[in-house]
Design goal:
36% of the residues lie in helices and 20% in strands. It is α+β, with helices and mostly antiparallel strands. The strands form 3 sheets. It has an 8-stranded mixed beta sheet with strand order 1-5-6-11-10-9-7-8. A 5-stranded mixed beta sheet has the order 13-12-14-15-16, with helices on both faces. It has a 3-stranded antiparallel beta sheet with strand order 2-4-3. Bound molecules: histidyl-adenosine monophosphate.
């Protein structure tokens, strides 16, 4: 790529690699997805919050092994402060809660749509920047919190236009998996490493995972036991999973949940229930993921506080919606186009547009006189639902015709 140095050379028209531009058609999708996020959060009684995308590096820096830590965009500002772009919202949320912990009455139910940055290997459904809907309940350790978060996520998917059969949420519990590991003689202090290795299953061959476990100090028989545990299908020994599935039945989302011991999650702060949502055909990476993280607040120096939540990105779900509903499904015809033939009708057109807007319509007023053909073809391209074109005759008659662009029918309106 040619550099642009003081006017020499050409500037690339591409955005920086992994970053997205949102043209109007892309914005139509983004609005559809964001509207569903906001409506689902609102319907479930969550309050909105926000923070700056620039965060203290120290808060986001991680112990080795976690992918997000290695993917941080970070830099020093002019005062040598170590700064990073957030890769996820959860540490910032924990910081904000810890800062005002004494003033708040628990539980908090907070939601936001946060832009996040990760230096990832790029694929169709992984970018270096994405928007992530976050939904978290802080200060509640009962399993109903998990069910509420999951219900809201399912509600958002319905509002976007997906059917219940389009996706499945795979649910497991790190606590349950931890108990199974402990029963095989693998002590809790080694679980974090085991989780990180097991999270790679399906992404790398089992031999490499075995090698990671060996490095983590597991004996050959412990490694064999670990792989055997990963075949577990019965969760009746876990009271929390049993109760979660029972409450999901009551909430009407049980048909979309499945138990899968293989769901671990790549972030080390999860302590209990973990879940990840995938499209049923298995074409895309995770739609959303989350779980319980009861120790994160103490890790950053706050009071012990239980918490559960999820992150739901815009990239995968938009790809999925396009695949299931069609590329253009988000740009539904909307609004009224108003045009005019000669300067003589300009005032009348502006008056009509103003009156229609006052009644609540969205009106796209042409800015110059046009030939009817050009006006209607532009109205079609911009997906106007209706169109009114004023000519000298209309003005003389004091009325015009409003055309429905889909049904091609016309209705008379008075000027
Ligand atoms: P996560 O699994 O890392 O969890 O990300 C959650 C979701 O964000 C993913 O399922 C995906 O939809 C989206 N996502 C993540 N990275 C990318 C990317 N590079 N490109 C496109 N989409 C992406 C978390 O971030 C946790 N903080 C979620 C959470 C909130 N847990 C509790 N509360």
């Amino acid at each position: 790529m040619e550099e642009n140095v003081s006017g020499q050379g050409k500037i690339s028209f591409e955005p920086p690699r992994g970053m997205r531009d949102f043209y109007p058609a892309d914005m139509a999708w983004r609005s559809r997805v964001f509207d569903a996020f906001r409506a689902a959060g609102e319907a479930a009684g969550f309050e909105q919050y926000d923070a700056c995308v620039v965060e203290n590096y120290e808060l986001l820096a991680r112990k080795a092994g976690e992918e997000v830590g290695e993917q941080l965009y970070h830099f020093y500002d002019k005062s040598e402060r170590h700064i990073a772009l957030r890769a996820e919202m959860t540490p910032t949320l924990a910081r904000m809660v810890a800062q005002r912990q004494k003033e708040r009455s628990m539980p908090l139910k907070w939601t936001t749509i946060a832009q996040c940055f990760r230096y990832e290997r790029m694929t169709k459904d992984r970018k270096r920047e994405h928007y992530q809907w976050n939904l978290d309940i802080i200060g509640e350790d009962g399993i109903l919190a998990e069910v509420e978060v999951l219900s809201a996520a399912c509600d958002a998917l319905s509002r976007m236009g997906l059917s219940d059969g389009d996706y499945k949420v795979r649910v497991s519990s790190r606590k349950f998996l931890g108990e199974l590991l402990e029963r095989s003689g693998i002590a809790p202090d080694r679980h974090a490493q085991v989780f990180l290795a097991l999270d790679k299953r399906g992404k790398m061959p089992d031999q490499e995972i075995a090698a990671m476990l060996r490095e983590g100090g597991l004996s050959e028989s412990e490694i064999a036991a670990t792989f055997a545990i990963m075949e577990t299908k019965d969760f009746s020994a876990s009271p929390e999973l049993t109760e979660l599935f029972r409450l999901a039945e009551v909430a009407g989302i049980a048909d979309r949940l499945v138990f899968d011991i293989g769901v671990i999650r790549g972030l080390s702060y999860y302590t209990g229930i973990v879940f990840e949502c995938f499209d049923t055909k298995g074409e895309f990476r995770a739609i959303f993921g989350g779980g319980r993280y009861d120790t994160l607040l103490t890790t950053i120096g706050g009071e012990p506080t239980s918490a559960v939540g999820l992150g739901f990105g815009d990239v995968v779900v938009t790809e999925l919606l396009k695949a299931r509903l069609g590329e253009d499904a988000a740009s539904e015809p909307r609004g009224i186009a108003v045009g005019f033939m000669t300067e003589g009708e300009r005032d009348a057109a502006l008056r009509l547009a103003t009156a229609l807007r006052a009644k609540g319509s969205s009106v796209d007023l042409s800015l110059r006189p046009q030939k009817p053909k050009k006006f209607f073809s532009h109205a079609e391209k911009t997906r106007a639902a209706k169109a009114v074109f004023l000519g000298p005759d209309d003005l003389a008659a004091g009325k015009a015709r409003m055309k429905d662009m889909l049904s091609r029918t016309e209705e008379e309106i008075s000027l």
